[in-house]
Design brief:
- The protein is α/β, with parallel strands linked by helices.
- It has 2 domains: 234 residues, Aldolase class I (TIM Barrel, Alpha-Beta Barrel); 68 residues.
- It contains 15 helices and 9 strands.
- Strands 1, 2, 3, 4, 5, 6, 7, 8 and 9 form a 9-stranded parallel beta sheet that branches.
- The radius of gyration is 19 Å and the shape is globular.
- The termini are far apart.
- The relative contact order is 0.11.
- The mean pLDDT is 96.
- Bound molecules: flavin mononucleotide.
- Flavin mononucleotide binds next to helix 10.
Amino acid sequence: MKRLEPVSYGSLFFAPMEGITDEAFRKTIIKLYPEWDYLATDFLRVPSAGRYPSKHVVTHFGKELSQEEEIKNKTQFQIMTSHRSFTIEMIKQVVELNYPWLDINLGCPSNTVTKNGGGSSLLLDLVSLRPLIKTIRDCFPGRLTSKIRTGFHHTDEFEDSIKLLNDEGIEMITVHGRTRDMMYKEPAQWSFIEKAVKVSQVPIVGNGDIWCVNDIDRMLKETGCHSVMVARGALKFPWMAQSYRKGQMRETSQERCLKIKTFFMEYRLNLEAEEISDRGLLKQSKSVSRYMLDGVDNGDTIRRKLLLSQTVPDFFSIIESF
Ligand SMILES: Cc1cc2nc3c(=O)[nH]c(=O)nc-3n(C[C@H](O)[C@H](O)[C@H](O)COP(=O)(O)O)c2cc1C
């Protein structure tokens, strides 16, 4: 498997988001905002019985985007596993399918996931986590990275978790500055990103509460992290990387509405190309619209109308009227 070029300092990552960052969404971002240096897929759950058909893996990671070498090389293909899952089989399959970059999810806070021993719950027992990471490293010759929270209930073992990932050959670590118990509520604690930078030999990507262009430099400066990853802020401003690269610190509400409209027109085309049902198209468009209207003039009213729309034409006629 070809080794990827190193990630440059100050790279901008569009975060993985379950239910959002599917192929149609990523195609939209890549086409309109190529300034994002890297993107991520939402997690693929490693099955606890047998193997998925390869078709399922390719569909989850993106049928069309998986064909394009350049895009594949800038995508973190994320998996979520547990001690009970068929991890080795899954990794072998990913290698056969020639995905060059795998990211291990050690951060998902959802009850369903953690009850089954996945995501952030793996941080509860670092002794057991070590052989799991080692197994994945031994089977996967490509770039292996991980995305982690600062702990589950507390942060006492945070530095140990970073050291463990370093020891076991993880090549880059994204730190979301919250414990699992904090979910998304309290402010992200960037001091833990700074701590990770101090103990890690491999690059740290800082994540949590980047809401505007200025926050990007602030995080790089305050924490000393190598690169940054944006999730909800990038749903609100999918063009954030473009604004950052062009030094555009402000935009009017009118400019923003125009960008939202452009985004949804392109997104609709990409969803339609997948031949998904109208119901699916409406559901996806609603999910994506949730954050995008924050701060827009009259945004709450428009969002309510969008969320209440019953048909695809209804939804898009509201977007078109922007
Ligand atoms: C709707 C949603 C879905 C998410 N799905 C994933 C996921 O699949 N994998 C993952 O590692 N993190 C996931 N996250 C966490 C984000 O990637 C990110 O770590 C978190 O939102 C903090 O960053 P932010 O403050 O920029 O939003 C998700 C977050 C949201 C809001």
